[in-house]
Write a structure and sequence with these properties.
Low-confidence stretches: none
Structural class: alpha+beta
Number of domains: 1
Number of helices: 7
Distance between the termini: 14 Å
Largest sheet: 4 strands, mixed
Strand order of the largest sheet: 1-2-4-3
Helix content: 40-55%
Number of strands: 4
């Protein structure tokens, strides 16, 4: 783990404490245990080089089936949520145009994540807040397979939001701040 960058370590710890620890993604624990989760860092600060890094991540997943999922961590750019959303749109377009929509899916996480129908300070936003901007690439076939075995997967977001409400914003702010300050 020594050769892993501080931002990737922070996101890795966030996955351990929040995503797995709070069971925000009931499927993540297995992949973390199996060590099939990859964390890559992008130093890109603008869309074009960020998309290049994203395309490389997609290519890597395409040729390395032993990697189940990949989190591309943006350590230097896209701290503005609107800029990040623009990048996300382009990344999704790249998947479509390359014929890989349906093969891969993107989950999005950002320090200032805000769902479209919520206020910025709504605690439910913490279900998608990470210490750094992240584009998380998932294999759609694997996701579909695990969803068939999970009872009521449509309840996962509501359960996560209820957990966030119960724990409160300060709980998440403390963790995210601590993880960002381990750089």
């Amino acid at each position: 783990m020594d050769d892993v960058s501080a931002p990737c370590r922070a996101v890795q710890q966030w996955v351990a404490e929040i995503v797995v620890g709070l069971n925000f993604c009931p499927f993540a624990h297995r992949e973390v245990e199996r060590r099939t989760v990859r964390y890559d860092e992008s130093n890109a600060t603008t869309v074009e080089p960020a998309l290049h890094d994203f395309a490389q991540a997609v290519e890597l997943l395409s040729v390395r089936p032993e990697i189940e999922t990949l989190l591309l961590v943006f350590s230097a750019g896209f701290s503005d949520f609107d800029d990040y959303l623009e990048l996300l749109d382009y990344a999704e377009l790249l998947l479509q145009e390359s014929g890989l929509e349906g093969t891969f899916q993107i989950a999005s996480f950002h320090p200032d994540y805000q769902f479209a129908d919520t206020a910025a300070d709504d605690v439910s936003n913490y279900t998608n807040r990470a210490p750094y901007p992240v584009l998380h690439l998932l294999r759609e076939a694997s996701l579909e397979k695990v969803l068939t075995r999970y009872p009521q997967p449509e309840q996962i977001p509501a359960a996560n939001m209820a957990t966030a409400e119960r724990l409160g914003a300060a709980f998440f702010d403390d963790i995210l701040l601590r993880l960002r300050n381990t750089d």
